[in-house]
Amino acid sequence: MNQYVNRKFSNQYKATIGADFLTKEVQFEDRQFTLQIWDTAGQERFQSLGVAFYRGADCCVLVYDVNVMKSFDNLNNWREEFLIQASPSDPENFPFVVLGNKIDVDSGNSRVVSEKKAKAWCASKGNIPYFETSAKEGFNVEAAFQCIAKNALKNEPEEEISVPQMGLLGTFSLG
């Protein structure tokens, strides 16, 4: 989130408690929008604090750490929890985007979730768009957020777009 909005990365890690958000002005189809990007707590002990921020969302970003299998295994739970709490009018077609983050760690040698496995999961959930990112290096962050904004704007003609990010956000460096 910080890499996308401010073009900055910090190694100073602080767990999100509840939610944090940043805004960014985006241009899409000759219209200006304010994208609200919400980082909700990914750690289970803070999970219930984030649910109020799910309602009214226009796209949900599920994030996992490619080096931590448990974070990948939690994607389905996060997706289901979001759909329950957000209660979108058309849950079958609600837009999600999945980010496999931290591809830069240990030059990829500590990776435990393959791109193939992640893409298969996304395909099984209705062809959810998938991006592999490095918030630290800024790799693929812009492309991922362009897709996120595009998917959010498809379902929301209003000028403010809300995009919560869910997943193992304690280790997700976009937020």
TrEMBL record:
GO terms for molecular function: GTP binding; GTPase activity. This is Ras-related protein Rab7. It comes from Quercus lobata. InterPro entries: P-loop_NTPase, Small_GTP-bd, Small_GTPase. It is a lipid-anchor. NCBIfam families: small_GTP. GO terms for cellular component: plasma membrane; vacuolar membrane. SMART domains: RAB, RAN, RAS, RHO. Protein transport. Probably involved in vesicular traffic. It comes from the Eukaryota.
